[in-house]
Specification:
Blueprint: H1 2-7, H2 9-33, E1 48-54, E2 64-73, E3 82-90, E4 105-112, H3 127-131, H4 133-153, H5 160-170, E5 191-198, E6 203-206, E7 217-222, H6 226-231, E8 234-242, E9 256-262
Antiparallel strand pairs: 1-2, 2-3, 3-7, 4-5, 4-8, 5-6, 8-9
Bound molecules: 2-acetamido-2-deoxy-beta-D-glucopyranose (3 copies).
């Protein structure tokens, strides 16, 4: 093979493309060959998946990657198509900065999908391209405000981001005029915890890195085809906020919110996975 590659630059190019494709196919093979049926909610055999690096400093020193993937079933439970969505975070040798662990804090990741299309791009990990810089800024502010308020009320909660998002889906914030109203037009916004910080030991427990075999969360969306889901923008919200047993924070700026907006192009004909 080496002699071919070196014999002419054109052949070299063809062969390196060939190998690039082969490597890609081999790389994708294990995921495609996995046995994960559509109705198994513990895994996802994706017709499409995508990942975006997210900066979650100061707690986690290296970027973490957010993965979003879905499988599709053209007949679902009967006649209507359905998709199964999964998401997870991947940590590549994560390093935690213990010096920033000054309170009991819970970090969560939410993924919102449905009734919103757009073109990811620009700051806030692609969200500014979907809805503009004003919406990203105002949404982060509104979420921080709600988390700050929640942690000051004394009402019990176990998952701060999940608690406020549930409230917002039921009664969307009327002040968020810079954001598209369909932002809240979803039945549910699944949320999972991925890190817990505790004092006085100054420890952070990170949930393990996920994969198609071990997503943080999966759920089913009725009447959605793979083609339709490919056009949807998946909005991830990552938060770091006071745990219930923490002292209330001094200001909203002690609460962290990161956004990420991604799309996953459909895998074409493989969208007929009906296993
Ligand atoms: C889209 O909006 C409709 C109408 O509000 C709602 O019934 C549906 O559940 C939404 N889709 C998703 C995926 O949440
Ligand atoms: C499924 O979606 C199609 C088009 O989006 C709509 O016309 C139809 O009423 C939906 N069916 C159900 C059961 O929601
Ligand atoms: C923080 O979490 C630890 C361990 O769960 C607990 O013992 C402590 O009371 C919590 N609150 C504060 C303010 O340290």
């Amino acid at each position: 093979m080496k002699s071919f590659v070196s014999s002419s630059p054109v052949m070299g190019f063809l062969f390196s493309s060939f190998w690039a494709v082969l490597v890609l196919v081999l790389f994708l093979q294990p995921a495609a060959a996995q046995i994960c049926t559509f109705w198994d909610s513990s895994c996802v055999d994706p017709v499409a998946q995508t990942a975006v690096p997210v900066d979650f400093r100061p707690l986690i020193i290296r970027d973490i990657s957010l993965y979003y993937a879905y499988d599709a079933n053209p007949r679902g439970k009967g006649q209507e198509p359905m998709t199964k969505t999964g998401f997870w975070l991947s940590f590549d040798n994560p390093r935690v900065d213990k010096s920033v662990i000054t309170a009991n804090r819970t970090s969560e990741v939410a993924l919102r999908i449905g009734n919103m299309t757009g073109t990811p791009g620009g700051d806030n990990n692609g969200c500014d391209g979907v809805w503009g810089t004003d919406c990203s800024r105002d949404l982060k502010r509104a979420l921080k405000h709600a988390l700050f308020h929640l942690s000051s009320t004394g009402d019990y909660y176990s998952r701060p981001l999940e608690t406020i998002l549930n409230q917002m889906v039921v009664s969307p914030p009327t002040t968020l005029t810079s954001c598209p109203p369909q932002l809240w037009d979803v039945g549910t916004i699944p949320v999972e915890i991925f890190a817990q910080e505790t004092i006085p030991d100054q420890e952070a427990t990170l949930y393990s890195s996920g994969s198609t075999d071990d997503p943080l969360k999966t759920w089913y969306i009725d009447n959605m085809t793979a083609h339709e889901q490919a056009q949807q923008v998946a909005v991830a919200i990552l938060s770091r906020a006071p745990s219930y047993d923490s002292e209330p924070p001094d200001s909203q700026e002690d609460i962290q919110i990161e956004l990420a907006c991604v799309q996953a192009p459909s895998g074409g004909s493989s969208a007929t996975s009906n296993s």
